[in-house]
Amino acid sequence: MSTTSPKRDDNQELDLSSVTQGVRNMFGQFNAFIYNCIRFVIKNIVLLCILLVIGGGLGAYLDRTEKRIYRHQIIVEPNFNSTDYLYSKIALLESRIDRNDTVFLKKIGFTNPNDLIDVKIAPILDIFKFVTNSGNEINYKLVELMAQDGDIKKVVTDNMTSKNYPYHTITFVTRGKTTQAETVAPLLKYLNDSQYYREIQKQYVKNVYMRLAANDRIIEQIDGVLKGLNSASGDASKGVYINENSQLNDVIKTKQAIVAEQGSQRLDLVGLDKIIKDNSVIINIRDEGSLVGKFKIVLPLVLITLFLIGYFFVSFYKKQSLKYNTK
Questions:
Q1: Cα–Cα distance between 293 and 65 in angstroms, integer?
Q2: Distance of CA 36 to CAs 161, 289, 308, Å?
Q3: Is beta strand 69-78 parallel, antiparallel or unpaired with respect to 168-175?
Q4: Of 102, 141, 143, which is closest to residue 126 (Cα–Cα)?
Q5: Residue ranges in the chain modelled with pLDDT below 50
Q6: Alpha-carbon gap, residue 151 to 146, rounded angstroms
Q7: 3-state SS of the chain?
Q8: 23 phi-psi bin (left φ>0, alpha ψ -120 to 50, beta other)
Q9: Which of 76, 116, 203, 267 maximizes the CB count within 10 A of its CB?
Q10: Per-residue pLDDT tens over the stretch 147-188
Q11: Which residues, 6+ apart, have CB-to-CB distance to 198 below 8 Å?
């Protein structure tokens, strides 16, 4: 017992001394690193300052001359089952922008085609509106059926489902700011340029007005029936009996349904003036992810980083060459 205790104390002292020595070595290496960094900066201060000036000057020049990148968004609603038509038109426009087909872009009305960078379209995922709009019982059953076989999230984003959402966002990117007259108006004109859908639009609107007129006549007839029922129910001397639950309530419910339909159709007419109806336009959203406007900061850092990489590469090569030459 007495012989093992001193050994344990000696081991603890050795461990403590080794830890202390390791900490000292670490601080010594850190101090040496700081010293070498300071020495490097002092030795190359002139060259570093030159790189900072060149990078800052060149960056400031590029920031003044290069146009900033801006994003623009249009929320649209395709009418008359024209969703596939809308996506095909955007795909064609995107391909012409990628090919820098300025002749085509000028032909459809863009005043500065070289400033167009990209155009995309994506549906606004609104599954609630997709299944609850009037006449969309089939959509509800379709989503219910697809959800039974897979994840509802995948169903919502599925290509077959997403194209049938009522609203879609068109996003296009330009160099520099733009105006609605320069880009938005030509884009919407291009999207609405379809003789086929114009004919459908004309007939569709005509049918809506016919339904409105027919419903107005039905409402007048119902009002006449209600007046007749009221007068008949008030004439007790003639012994006329009216079952309010089976007749009057049914007539009133029918009128309420027709009035609601009339209001819905009149609201629909507001959006039927275009094949691709623009509901919201937001332009000139500055893209903070681009380097334009930041060159004065980025370029000096890039030049100094390249200099450091080259310096340490040359230093490493010289040290290794010296080792091999001394063997």
A1: 10
A2: 63, 36, 13
A3: antiparallel
A4: 143
A5: 1-2, 134, 236-242
A6: 9
A7: CCCHHHHHHHHHHHHHHHHHHHHHHHHHHHHHHHHHHHHHHHHCHHHHHHHHHHHHHHHHHHHHHCCCEEEEEEEEEECCCCHHHHHHHHHHHHHHHHCCCHHHHHHCCCCCHHHEEEEEEEECCCHHHHHHCCCCHHHHHHHHHHHHHCCHHHHHHCHHHHCCCCCEEEEEEEECCCCHHHHHHHHHHHHCCCHHHHHHHHHHHHHHHHHHHHHHHHHHHHHHHHHHHHHHHHCHHHCCCCCHHHHHHHHHHHHHHHHHHHHHHHHHHHHCCCCEEEEEEEEEEECCCCCCCCHHHHHHHHHHHHHHHHHHHHHHHHHHHHHHHHC
A8: alpha
A9: 76
A10: 666 556 666 666 666 777 889 999 999 988 999 999 999 999
A11: 275
Domain ranges of the chain: 1-43, 44-62+293-327, 196-274
100 token code pair: 């820098």
Here the tokens at position 302 are 């890039």
